[in-house]
Specification:
Layout (H helix, E strand, L loop, with lengths): L2 H28 L5 H5 L4 E8 L3 E8 L4 E8 L6 E9 L4 E9 L2 E8 L5 E7 L2 E8 L7 E6 L1
Antiparallel strand pairs: 1-2, 2-3, 3-6, 4-5, 4-7, 7-8, 8-9
Length: 149
């Protein structure tokens, strides 16, 4: 690993830590009002969701004006920091987006263009992982998987 890459990685980690510290304060105050539209944007309508055990829900939203899907994982009871993620993938186009880290109330948004395509999406809170494969399309039946660990 070259010096430039190490320096870039250190800079990115510093930015991540600074950004995360600021986000924790903002997230903790906004936690009672967190909605999929609050994370993804008001033009995004919820089109699917999957429970993450009793810890929260992963939401799939869609913006019909621009054809973008957005995913967000939202905790039922915000509070102490937990490892969380949200991801979305469009198999037809190989487009994907994800967000992961230690958060107090939500992970996301992750946005991809998905008009006319099946999407696979999911996320986790702590050690409970949920994935929904090939959803929101007429040609394939979605498959849901929840794992602990």
């Amino acid at each position: 690993m070259g010096f430039a890459r190490i320096a870039a990685t250190a800079g990115a980690l510093t930015a991540l830590v600074v950004g995360t510290t600021a986000a924790f304060g903002a997230t903790a105050q906004a936690a009672p009002n967190v909605t999929p539209q609050g994370v993804c944007g008001s033009a995004y309508k919820t089109v699917n969701s999957a429970p993450v055990g009793s810890l929260g829900t992963v939401y799939l939203t869609y913006n019909s004006a621009n054809g973008n899907n957005c995913v967000a994982t939202i905790r039922s009871n915000p509070g102490t920091v937990k490892y969380m993620s949200a991801y979305i993938y469009v198999p037809d186009t190989d487009a994907w987006a994800e967000d992961y880290g230690n958060y107090t109330s939500y992970a996301g948004p992750g946005r991809v263009y998905g008009k006319g395509h099946c999407v696979s999406w999911g996320g986790n809170i702590d050690n409970i992982h949920v994935s929904v494969e090939n959803s929101n399309c007429a040609t394939l039946r979605e498959q849901r998987v929840t794992t602990i660990g």
